[in-house]
Amino acid sequence: MSAFAIETVGLNFNFGSQTIVKDLSLQVPKGSIYGFLGPNGAGKTTTIKILLNLLQSPADQVFIFGKEINRNRIATLKRIGALVEQPAIYGHLTGKENLINRCILLGINKNKSTEMLALVGLTDAASKKAAQYSLGMKQRLGIALALVSDPELLLLDEPTNGLDPNGIIEVRNLMVELATKHQKTILVSSHLLAEIERTATHVGIINKGQLLFQGTINELHQLSKPMLEIEINDVEKASDLLINCGYQVAENDGKKLSIPYKNDKENAEINTLLVQNGFMISALYKQRKDLENLFLDITKNN
């Protein structure tokens, strides 16, 4: 049995002479929320369409739950739910009617629609026309439509795109609940790096069709060396003092100093040294690079 819900092995995909995906080896563990990160045009949507067999992959390059997708197309797709680009919603139907319609198409008991509305928090809006839904509600209805068949794997392409802060939080909370309480595996693509940081357990970073990083969110953070940030009244003099005392000042932006973080004991020694030399420290804190800066570091050499 494969430990991965999704595994691509050296996946290549071209549109004519243009390479869209190059030697892509994704490994999405079962039960994970896998953040698939990259700028617009990096190849994320194309990859998701390949995983859904909407675009045909070369033989023996795409495996879903250990089964090669081309040879096991129907059985594999039954295990996947997806929201790619915009949800396919009928605006003239209510939220519940949209779900009943999907149940009928899939030969599923119509009562499943009530369960799905509750799962995505739309029970109160069940009899409201979908055209009157907010963007966040439409995205949640789209996710409910993807979940009707109770898939084990959910592929979400930019699910928070165009949402207001409330909508983003709604979708984020729903993803975490689906993974933790309902044991779904979720691959979610995004170019919003801070978004992924809040939900993902694993991350893959793609640029120009190539995978630049893959691992747990903690492994990604370990690439980012934490810094000690010091906000102080005289940055230049404080910098000179620290350098003369053998400390490495990594950055001085005129407002604060950045020193590579070693341990809390050294932080206390630096604080004492500065205070004893008459400096006024307004803030001293440990800072990690956010994903945005990490992403720039990883992609700038590619």
What does this structure look like?
The protein has eleven helices and 16 strands. With 302 residues, it is α/β, with parallel strands linked by helices. The protein folds into two domains: 4-222, P-loop containing nucleotide triphosphate hydrolases (Rossmann fold, 3-Layer(aba) Sandwich), CATH 3.40.50; 225-288, Alpha-Beta Plaits (2-Layer Sandwich).
Short key terms for the protein model shown above:
302 residues, Alpha-Beta Plaits, single chain, six-stranded mixed beta sheet, 36% helix, four-stranded antiparallel beta sheet, alpha/beta, Rossmann fold
According to CATH, what is the class of the largest domain? Alpha Beta
Strand order of the largest sheet: 8-9-10-5-11-12
The CATH topology of the largest domain is given as Rossmann fold
Q: What is the helix/strand order?
A: EEEEEHEEHEHHHEHEHEEHEHEEHEH
Rounded mean pLDDT score: 89
CATH architecture of the largest domain: 3-Layer(aba) Sandwich
User: Can you tell me the number of structural domains?
Assistant: 2
* Helix-strand makeup class: alpha/beta
Q: What Rg, in angstroms, do the CA atoms define?
A: 24 Å
Number of helices: 11
The low-pLDDT segments are none
- Proportion of beta-strand residues: 25-35%
Tell me the number of strands: 16
Principal-axis shape equals elongated
Termini Cα gap: 35 Å
Helical content band:
25-40%
